[in-house]
Write a structure and sequence with these properties.
The protein has about 290 residues and is of the alpha/beta class. The protein has nine helices and ten strands. Helix 4 packs across helix 6. The termini are close together. The model has no long low-confidence stretch (mean pLDDT about 95).
Protein backbone atom coordinates (compact mmCIF):
# COMPACT_ATOMS: atom_id res chain seq x y z
CA UNK A 1 0.00 0.00 0.00
CA UNK A 2 1.25 3.47 -0.90
CA UNK A 3 1.64 6.14 1.75
CA UNK A 4 -0.54 9.19 1.37
CA UNK A 5 1.78 11.73 -0.25
CA UNK A 6 -0.50 14.22 -1.99
CA UNK A 7 -4.02 15.27 -2.96
CA UNK A 8 -4.68 17.55 -5.92
CA UNK A 9 -8.46 17.85 -5.56
CA UNK A 10 -10.15 19.03 -2.37
CA UNK A 11 -12.34 21.99 -1.34
CA UNK A 12 -12.71 24.53 1.46
CA UNK A 13 -15.31 27.02 2.70
CA UNK A 14 -14.18 29.32 -0.11
CA UNK A 15 -16.51 27.30 -2.37
CA UNK A 16 -18.68 24.36 -1.27
CA UNK A 17 -16.38 22.74 1.28
CA UNK A 18 -17.21 22.50 4.98
CA UNK A 19 -13.75 23.05 6.44
CA UNK A 20 -11.64 26.18 6.69
CA UNK A 21 -8.19 26.37 5.15
CA UNK A 22 -6.45 26.17 8.57
CA UNK A 23 -8.46 23.01 9.38
CA UNK A 24 -7.43 21.42 6.09
CA UNK A 25 -3.82 22.50 6.61
CA UNK A 26 -3.75 20.75 10.00
CA UNK A 27 -4.63 17.46 8.29
CA UNK A 28 -2.03 18.04 5.58
CA UNK A 29 0.69 18.73 8.14
CA UNK A 30 -0.24 15.58 10.04
CA UNK A 31 -0.13 13.47 6.88
CA UNK A 32 3.16 15.10 5.78
CA UNK A 33 2.18 15.42 2.14
CA UNK A 34 4.73 16.39 -0.47
CA UNK A 35 2.15 18.19 -2.64
CA UNK A 36 -1.36 19.56 -2.33
CA UNK A 37 -3.75 21.63 -4.43
CA UNK A 38 -6.82 23.35 -3.02
CA UNK A 39 -9.19 23.59 -6.01
CA UNK A 40 -12.21 25.56 -4.87
CA UNK A 41 -14.89 26.04 -7.52
CA UNK A 42 -14.18 29.12 -9.64
CA UNK A 43 -12.18 30.63 -6.77
CA UNK A 44 -8.56 31.06 -5.75
CA UNK A 45 -9.31 32.89 -2.50
CA UNK A 46 -7.86 30.21 -0.21
CA UNK A 47 -4.55 29.54 -1.95
CA UNK A 48 -2.38 32.16 -0.27
CA UNK A 49 -3.90 31.30 3.11
CA UNK A 50 -2.99 27.66 2.48
CA UNK A 51 0.58 28.67 1.61
CA UNK A 52 0.81 30.59 4.87
CA UNK A 53 -0.66 27.75 6.93
CA UNK A 54 1.77 25.24 5.41
CA UNK A 55 4.85 27.44 5.51
CA UNK A 56 7.78 25.39 6.79
CA UNK A 57 5.86 22.08 6.57
CA UNK A 58 7.70 20.77 3.51
CA UNK A 59 4.44 20.53 1.52
CA UNK A 60 4.44 22.22 -1.88
CA UNK A 61 1.18 24.07 -2.53
CA UNK A 62 0.36 23.94 -6.25
CA UNK A 63 -2.07 26.76 -7.10
CA UNK A 64 -5.32 25.31 -8.42
CA UNK A 65 -9.02 25.90 -9.06
CA UNK A 66 -11.92 23.84 -10.42
CA UNK A 67 -13.55 25.73 -13.27
CA UNK A 68 -17.14 25.20 -14.43
CA UNK A 69 -17.58 25.48 -18.20
CA UNK A 70 -20.24 24.91 -20.82
CA UNK A 71 -19.49 22.19 -23.36
CA UNK A 72 -22.23 22.21 -25.96
CA UNK A 73 -25.45 21.45 -24.08
CA UNK A 74 -23.42 19.78 -21.35
CA UNK A 75 -21.31 21.15 -18.51
CA UNK A 76 -17.84 20.05 -17.45
CA UNK A 77 -15.29 20.86 -14.77
CA UNK A 78 -11.73 21.77 -15.68
CA UNK A 79 -8.95 21.74 -13.07
CA UNK A 80 -6.46 24.55 -13.68
CA UNK A 81 -3.06 24.07 -12.01
CA UNK A 82 0.21 25.89 -11.49
CA UNK A 83 -0.47 29.54 -12.32
CA UNK A 84 0.36 33.03 -11.16
CA UNK A 85 -2.35 33.71 -8.57
CA UNK A 86 -2.73 37.39 -9.41
CA UNK A 87 -3.08 36.77 -13.16
CA UNK A 88 -5.54 33.92 -12.61
CA UNK A 89 -7.49 36.15 -10.24
CA UNK A 90 -8.10 38.68 -13.00
CA UNK A 91 -9.43 35.94 -15.31
CA UNK A 92 -11.68 34.51 -12.61
CA UNK A 93 -13.15 37.91 -11.75
CA UNK A 94 -13.97 38.40 -15.42
CA UNK A 95 -15.44 34.90 -15.66
CA UNK A 96 -17.53 35.26 -12.52
CA UNK A 97 -18.88 38.67 -13.53
CA UNK A 98 -19.95 37.32 -16.93
CA UNK A 99 -21.76 34.43 -15.24
CA UNK A 100 -23.33 36.73 -12.62
CA UNK A 101 -24.88 38.94 -15.30
CA UNK A 102 -26.03 35.93 -17.32
CA UNK A 103 -27.67 34.37 -14.26
CA UNK A 104 -29.76 37.48 -13.62
CA UNK A 105 -31.17 37.31 -17.16
CA UNK A 106 -31.56 33.52 -16.98
CA UNK A 107 -33.50 33.85 -13.71
CA UNK A 108 -35.86 36.45 -15.18
CA UNK A 109 -36.70 34.20 -18.13
CA UNK A 110 -36.98 31.06 -15.97
CA UNK A 111 -39.44 32.75 -13.60
CA UNK A 112 -41.53 34.05 -16.49
CA UNK A 113 -41.75 30.62 -18.13
CA UNK A 114 -42.51 28.87 -14.85
CA UNK A 115 -45.36 31.26 -14.07
CA UNK A 116 -46.68 30.77 -17.58
CA UNK A 117 -46.91 27.08 -16.67
CA UNK A 118 -49.14 28.08 -13.74
CA UNK A 119 -46.44 27.54 -11.11
CA UNK A 120 -45.92 29.89 -8.19
CA UNK A 121 -42.47 31.45 -7.68
CA UNK A 122 -41.42 33.41 -4.61
CA UNK A 123 -41.30 37.14 -5.27
CA UNK A 124 -37.75 38.46 -5.32
CA UNK A 125 -36.16 35.07 -5.93
CA UNK A 126 -32.52 35.73 -6.85
CA UNK A 127 -29.83 33.54 -8.43
CA UNK A 128 -27.26 31.86 -6.21
CA UNK A 129 -23.55 32.09 -6.95
CA UNK A 130 -23.04 28.47 -5.92
CA UNK A 131 -25.81 26.65 -7.81
CA UNK A 132 -27.44 26.65 -11.26
CA UNK A 133 -30.43 28.91 -11.81
CA UNK A 134 -32.55 25.91 -12.79
CA UNK A 135 -31.88 24.31 -9.40
CA UNK A 136 -32.65 27.52 -7.50
CA UNK A 137 -35.98 27.80 -9.29
CA UNK A 138 -36.78 24.09 -8.95
CA UNK A 139 -36.09 24.15 -5.20
CA UNK A 140 -38.40 27.13 -4.81
CA UNK A 141 -41.11 25.47 -6.88
CA UNK A 142 -40.96 22.23 -4.90
CA UNK A 143 -41.14 24.01 -1.54
CA UNK A 144 -44.53 25.52 -2.51
CA UNK A 145 -47.56 23.43 -1.49
CA UNK A 146 -49.74 24.87 -4.27
CA UNK A 147 -47.20 23.72 -6.87
CA UNK A 148 -47.08 20.23 -5.40
CA UNK A 149 -50.87 20.07 -5.60
CA UNK A 150 -50.60 20.97 -9.28
CA UNK A 151 -48.04 18.19 -9.77
CA UNK A 152 -50.35 15.69 -8.08
CA UNK A 153 -53.06 16.58 -10.58
CA UNK A 154 -50.78 16.66 -13.64
CA UNK A 155 -48.34 13.85 -12.86
CA UNK A 156 -50.04 11.84 -10.13
CA UNK A 157 -47.20 12.49 -7.71
CA UNK A 158 -45.20 15.17 -5.97
CA UNK A 159 -42.06 16.25 -7.82
CA UNK A 160 -38.50 16.61 -6.61
CA UNK A 161 -36.20 19.35 -7.96
CA UNK A 162 -34.62 16.75 -10.25
CA UNK A 163 -38.06 15.74 -11.56
CA UNK A 164 -38.98 19.39 -12.12
CA UNK A 165 -35.89 19.72 -14.28
CA UNK A 166 -36.73 16.75 -16.49
CA UNK A 167 -40.45 17.58 -16.72
CA UNK A 168 -40.13 21.33 -17.29
CA UNK A 169 -36.57 22.72 -17.55
CA UNK A 170 -34.62 20.26 -19.69
CA UNK A 171 -33.86 21.16 -23.34
CA UNK A 172 -37.04 21.32 -25.46
CA UNK A 173 -39.27 21.43 -22.37
CA UNK A 174 -41.66 24.33 -21.71
CA UNK A 175 -39.43 26.12 -19.19
CA UNK A 176 -36.05 25.45 -20.83
CA UNK A 177 -33.56 28.33 -20.69
CA UNK A 178 -29.97 28.35 -21.93
CA UNK A 179 -27.71 27.79 -18.95
CA UNK A 180 -25.38 30.58 -17.86
CA UNK A 181 -21.64 30.09 -18.09
CA UNK A 182 -18.49 30.52 -20.14
CA UNK A 183 -17.43 27.86 -22.63
CA UNK A 184 -14.48 25.49 -22.47
CA UNK A 185 -13.08 27.37 -25.45
CA UNK A 186 -13.27 30.65 -23.50
CA UNK A 187 -11.41 29.15 -20.54
CA UNK A 188 -8.79 27.48 -22.73
CA UNK A 189 -8.08 30.78 -24.48
CA UNK A 190 -7.91 32.81 -21.26
CA UNK A 191 -5.70 30.35 -19.38
CA UNK A 192 -3.39 29.54 -22.28
CA UNK A 193 0.07 30.63 -21.16
CA UNK A 194 -1.21 31.28 -17.63
CA UNK A 195 -1.97 27.82 -16.19
CA UNK A 196 0.62 25.14 -16.85
CA UNK A 197 -2.08 22.47 -16.92
CA UNK A 198 -5.82 22.26 -17.64
CA UNK A 199 -7.03 18.86 -16.49
CA UNK A 200 -10.47 17.37 -17.25
CA UNK A 201 -11.98 16.66 -13.83
CA UNK A 202 -13.54 13.21 -13.20
CA UNK A 203 -14.42 12.66 -16.90
CA UNK A 204 -16.79 9.73 -16.29
CA UNK A 205 -18.69 11.43 -13.46
CA UNK A 206 -21.55 13.87 -14.12
CA UNK A 207 -20.94 17.25 -12.52
CA UNK A 208 -24.63 17.47 -11.53
CA UNK A 209 -27.85 15.48 -11.81
CA UNK A 210 -28.77 17.36 -14.99
CA UNK A 211 -25.54 16.79 -16.92
CA UNK A 212 -24.00 13.79 -18.63
CA UNK A 213 -20.64 12.08 -18.04
CA UNK A 214 -18.11 12.23 -20.84
CA UNK A 215 -17.04 9.40 -23.12
CA UNK A 216 -13.71 8.76 -24.81
CA UNK A 217 -14.68 10.72 -27.95
CA UNK A 218 -15.58 13.82 -25.94
CA UNK A 219 -12.47 13.51 -23.80
CA UNK A 220 -10.39 13.58 -26.98
CA UNK A 221 -12.37 16.58 -28.21
CA UNK A 222 -11.68 18.50 -25.00
CA UNK A 223 -7.98 17.68 -25.34
CA UNK A 224 -8.08 19.20 -28.84
CA UNK A 225 -9.76 22.33 -27.48
CA UNK A 226 -6.99 22.91 -24.96
CA UNK A 227 -7.13 20.52 -22.02
CA UNK A 228 -3.72 19.03 -21.24
CA UNK A 229 -4.75 15.94 -19.32
CA UNK A 230 -7.31 14.02 -17.29
CA UNK A 231 -8.04 13.28 -13.66
CA UNK A 232 -7.48 9.53 -13.47
CA UNK A 233 -8.07 8.86 -9.76
CA UNK A 234 -11.39 10.01 -8.26
CA UNK A 235 -13.73 8.54 -5.67
CA UNK A 236 -16.56 7.93 -8.16
CA UNK A 237 -14.44 6.49 -10.97
CA UNK A 238 -14.54 2.70 -11.28
CA UNK A 239 -11.47 0.47 -11.65
CA UNK A 240 -12.43 -0.23 -15.28
CA UNK A 241 -12.74 3.49 -16.01
CA UNK A 242 -9.41 4.17 -14.34
CA UNK A 243 -7.75 1.61 -16.59
CA UNK A 244 -9.32 3.26 -19.65
CA UNK A 245 -8.12 6.70 -18.52
CA UNK A 246 -4.61 5.33 -17.94
CA UNK A 247 -4.65 3.96 -21.49
CA UNK A 248 -5.72 7.37 -22.85
CA UNK A 249 -2.89 8.98 -20.87
CA UNK A 250 -0.37 6.49 -22.25
CA UNK A 251 -1.61 6.58 -25.84
CA UNK A 252 -1.75 10.38 -26.03
CA UNK A 253 1.23 11.11 -23.75
CA UNK A 254 -0.81 13.58 -21.69
CA UNK A 255 -0.69 14.58 -18.04
CA UNK A 256 -2.87 13.18 -15.26
CA UNK A 257 -3.84 13.80 -11.65
CA UNK A 258 -5.86 12.35 -8.79
CA UNK A 259 -7.69 13.59 -5.74
CA UNK A 260 -10.21 12.77 -3.04
CA UNK A 261 -12.68 15.54 -4.01
CA UNK A 262 -12.96 16.01 -0.25
CA UNK A 263 -15.59 18.54 0.89
CA UNK A 264 -15.56 17.83 4.61
CA UNK A 265 -18.92 16.04 4.56
CA UNK A 266 -19.72 13.03 6.73
CA UNK A 267 -19.32 10.29 4.12
CA UNK A 268 -16.56 11.90 2.03
CA UNK A 269 -13.53 9.97 0.90
CA UNK A 270 -10.61 10.76 3.19
CA UNK A 271 -8.07 13.34 1.98
CA UNK A 272 -5.27 11.71 0.00
CA UNK A 273 -7.43 8.77 -1.09
CA UNK A 274 -9.79 8.01 -3.97
CA UNK A 275 -11.75 5.35 -2.09
CA UNK A 276 -11.62 3.28 1.10
CA UNK A 277 -8.01 2.15 1.56
CA UNK A 278 -7.20 3.43 -1.94
CA UNK A 279 -4.32 5.87 -1.72
CA UNK A 280 -3.72 8.01 -4.81
CA UNK A 281 -0.50 6.51 -6.23
CA UNK A 282 0.91 9.14 -8.58
CA UNK A 283 0.39 12.18 -10.79
CA UNK A 284 2.15 14.02 -13.59
CA UNK A 285 1.82 17.73 -14.32
CA UNK A 286 3.98 19.92 -16.51
CA UNK A 287 6.33 20.99 -13.72
CA UNK A 288 5.51 18.54 -10.93
CA UNK A 289 5.19 14.78 -10.75
CA UNK A 290 5.25 11.95 -8.26
CA UNK A 291 5.83 8.34 -9.29
CA UNK A 292 4.29 5.30 -7.65
Amino acid sequence: MFLTRFDLHFHSVHSDGKLSVPELATTIRRKKWQYCALVDHNSIDGIREMETCLDGSGTKVIPGTELTAKYGENEVHILAYDFDIDVAGVILRERNEIVRRQKIKEMEIAICLSRREGLEITDGLAPSEKQPVSLTVALDICANRANQNIFLERHGKRLTPESVYYEYQAPNKSCAVERSGVTVEWLAKKFRGVAQDLIIAHPFVSVSVVTKPLDEMRINDLLKIGATGVEVYHNQTSNEQIELLKKIVSDRAIHYTGGSDFHGKKNDTSPGQFGPKKTIPDFHLSRYQLSS
